[in-house]
Write a structure and sequence with these properties.
GMP Synthetase, Chain A, domain 3, three-stranded mixed sheet, 3 helices, 3 strands
């Protein structure tokens, strides 16, 4: 099966905000995933360009660079990913309503 958004989101569940014991997907920090074929990528396995729009829990998040690097590094581990672009976006503004139900329970804010 070709690489799809769910594959990317599953991989990104391994990336955590260092201040919270919850992954960035369940925190609702991932706003958009776009996957396009990369016909110029070398190798036998078809490669894709993955673009991720994500936010932080606050504009002053001191860990934003580290989190974005962790996203790039995690996606680089997927054999079908050739190039990754991570965009930090602030619209719409992140709010706690974006947190998944499972993460709410984990954080005790159910």
């Amino acid at each position: 099966m070709p690489l799809n958004e769910e594959d990317v989101l599953i991989a990104l569940r391994d990336v955590y905000d260092p201040e919270l014991p919850v992954n960035i997907v369940d925190l609702g920090l991932i706003y958009r995933v776009a996957i396009t074929p990369d016909p110029d990528a070398p190798g036998m396995v078809p490669k894709h360009r993955v673009e991720v729009d994500m936010s932080m829990t606050s504009p002053g998040c001191p860990a934003h660079g580290m989190i974005m690097d962790n996203v790039r590094n995690r996606l680089a581990c997927i054999q079908e990913v050739g190039e990754t672009q991570v965009n930090l976006v602030w619209e719409p503004t992140w709010g706690p309503e974006r947190i998944s139900e499972a993460a709410r329970k984990q954080l005790g804010i159910g």
